[in-house]
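assembly run, all chains below
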Amino acid sequence: MSDEPELILADLSDDELVEQMKDDLYDGMGPEIAEGTQILLDRGWDANAILTESLVEAMRIVGLDFGDGILFVPEVLSAANAMKGGMELLRPILAANDAVKPTGRVVIGTVKGDIHDIGKNLVAMMLEGAGFEVMDLGINTDVEEFLKAYDEFNPDLLGMSALLTTTMPYMGVVIEEFEKRGLRKDCGIFVGGAPVNQEFADAIGATEYGGDASNTVELAKRFMGVNRP
Amino acid sequence: MTAAAKTLIIACGALAREVRALSDQLPAFDLRCVPATLHNRPQRIVPALERILDETGSAYERTVIAFGDCGTGGALDRLCAARGLERLPGAHCYAFFAGLSEFDAMMEEELGTFFLTDFLARQFETMVIRPLGLDRKPELRDLYFGHYKRLVFLSQTDDDDLLANANVAAARLGLAFEHRPTGLMAFARDLERLSTPLAA
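ok done. output:
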């Protein structure tokens, strides 16, 4: 048992709490993130401010440390899982706030024949954190489901993920169908996943290749004209 | 280099034992391996193979790449095409142990199938549990395996210890267990076809 006194989040000042939440998210402490988020909401904080100043900022650091080889996939997953607890509290508030215009609208899914969704989920959550509205189609998504979601959701971006060499060519099938139907002029198509690379993305005519979750979000923001120099 | 060997087999470390087990059935060969752990960073597989190919140069009449695509996203096939080499058929070792059509049938039957071979049953901790961080963060198990339904143990040998390991692995991942012995027949046939020098 630790000799350190238990930290009472509610006793911290706003600044201290935000810093503590960043540490807790980095360490994958889900219940603490949910508790901290609720405390800030109770203190009258704006949901968007909580999201950007604590959760997204912490995930940004997690992303940087992952890129630098300081953190590995399990730690990133733990952090993302912890963020989920805070997001669940913030999402309904953010969705109800008409004054905040979303950064963009994204339909995302793991392609047909593939059940792997860790990377896709991470990207979806990071996009939400960056202010995108996300429709997540889940796993094993075929072209009809992508088309239906396009009709229903009118996205700015379509994101596809695959973990398997055998399933990634299906991304090309979806792109071809979108091309054929003339849907690409208003919708960027982003692809990613472990076996996917820039060369493959270029070969199938994707708009962008997202090498990792942070990079994908930056590309999505750039595509929407956010932070454009 | 073995004096008599005209064939070089460059294999994934996960196949070394099985390749050696076929020594009697294949023309004399030398074996070089790259670590199986590269599967966790498949972008490093092709550079590792290139290093061996550059080292061995034209010392062999025939070089066989005992790999599937193994998550290289076609990069391994591009290497093979550029160097005039052939690799084993299929995306990964499960396919060439089981046979391509049998493997496809299993995937058709249940998309959420996680496979173990003898090697993976033997090295489950090193190849699966630790790289996924499940030794220190067991709570992540369902994030990784939540969409999987069953674990199929494709066994190459008749080994009760490995069978027990595979069973325990399935329980640990929360998956139903199935055992399908493959032996080495399909693997041997592919390897023999690729490793026989053309002039022989």
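The first helix of chain A runs from residue 14 to 26.

Residues 87 and 161 of chain A are 22 Å apart (CA to CA).

not gonna interpret more than that til we talk
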